[in-house]
Design a protein that fits this description.
The protein is mainly α. The protein contains 17 helices and no strands. The longest helix has 18 residues, at 94-111. Helix 1 packs across helix 5, helix 3 crosses helix 5 (94-111) and helix 9 crosses helix 10 (177-194). It binds iron/sulfur cluster. Residues 242, 281-282, 287-289, 292, 294-295, 298, 300-301, 303-304 line the site of iron/sulfur cluster (SF4).
């Protein structure tokens, strides 16, 4: 897409989001990954956004520093923000909310340019199974468990015919292993019997599979089929509330409210950015506000640690200098200095 066209589309979508309507350009399915040209354009827009006047609602005496671009793009590069608390966005108009939400996403895209699904998978079947297994545990634990599962049961037909007790033994480290065994065998049977052994690419079919809800379905649609979807997990719910993107508490309503703030083509990457930020910096109990690149745009700044040094010690995964969650991370993550997770039982 040419730059001028991209800008026009961006302006149109911001306008449409501000009015709460879905622009025509969003009605057709879009790619899950933002093309490089768009990312470049987004980076340029971010630069200009940084130069723009600060939001009226914040009016901080001194604007907290946003991570420098180079540092932000590097794996460990989250520069500390200064300890200045912005004011909450009282009476923020919808247009201002749309702009602020998109600025936050653009900042996060710079901080996590390598953001990706943190479950290891090689095909849609592996992704749907891994996503079901990720309930109530970390993606890391799932990634450490699935190699043995997929080595023994590489296809839906294999898993559908498995002896449950044998699957339970493999899945034990993920917790709730009996219920998860039932789900993955059940969904494998459904895939085999109803979908010819293939994972369906439609929301209405996916949610009929045992153990698959909207959240899992959108993970699969967005990351295995390139169909835009918003993944409303626990991190997403917490962060959008902190950012006051919506006051909704029901995941389906959050999905609709946040979806209306962004072009559909951004939904999958937006989900990654928000979830990555929740896992690395904006933690549930102690957010690292003093090391947060979106502090100037966040009404909840100060909810966590604001001292830059102390905040930096709270950072997790690659931002804290630790291994990531995937045993087989994408090349972009490795190129940025990220490290793979160790296999189960290693050191
Ligand atoms: S609460 Fe703190 S860590 Fe979370 S986004 Fe706001 S400033 Fe950043």
């Amino acid at each position: 897409m040419k730059k001028s066209a991209a800008n026009k589309e961006s302006a149109a979508t911001e306008k449409s989001a501000a009015s709460g309507k879905t622009p025509a350009s969003e009605k057709s399915p879009a790619k899950s990954k933002t093309p490089a040209s768009e990312k470049t354009s987004a980076a340029k827009k971010t630069a200009s956004a940084k130069k723009a006047a600060p939001l009226k609602r914040q009016a901080p005496a001194k604007k907290p520093a946003v991570a420098p671009k180079k540092a932000a793009a590097a794996v460990k590069g989250v520069a500390p923000a200064k300890t200045v608390a912005p004011k909450p966005p009282r009476g923020e108009s919808r247009t201002a909310l749309v702009r602020r939400a998109r600025r936050i996403d653009r900042e996060l895209a710079e901080v996590y340019p390598y953001a990706h699904p943190e479950l290891d998978f090689e095909n849609p079947f592996q992704l749907v199974v891994a996503t079901v297994l990720s309930a109530q545990t970390t993606d890391l634990r799932v990634n450490q468990t699935t190699p043995a599962l997929f080595a023994k049961y590489p296809t839906p037909e294999d898993l559908a015919a498995a002896v449950p007790e044998e699957v339970e033994e493999i899945l034990r480290p993920t917790g709730f292993f009996r219920a998860k065994t039932k789900s993955v065998i059940g969904l494998s049977k459904a895939l085999t019997e109803d979908f010819g052994g293939e994972v369906p690419g439609r929301l209405e079919d996916l949610v009929k599979l045992p153990g698959v809800g909207r959240k899992t379905a959108f993970v699969v649609l967005g990351n295995a089929f390139g169909r835009p979807g918003i993944t409303v997990d626990t991190h997403f719910q917490r962060l959008v509330r902190r950012w006051r993107w919506t006051e909704e508490t029901d995941p389906d309503k959050i999905e609709a409210a946040v979806g209306a703030l962004f072009p559909k083509s951004d939904w999958t990457d937006l989900s990654h950015h928000v979830i990555w930020h929740g896992r690395r910096i904006c933690h549930a109990r102690k957010p690292a506000c003093g090391a947060c690149p979106v502090a100037p745009l966040c009404p909840a700044y100060g909810e966590g640690e604001t001292d830059p040094e102390k905040a930096r010690k709270l950072l997790k995964y690659e931002k804290g200098g630790f291994p990531g969650q995937r045993l087989k991370p994408p090349q972009a993550y490795l190129d940025a200095g990220g490290r793979p997770a160790p296999p189960l039982g290693a050191g």
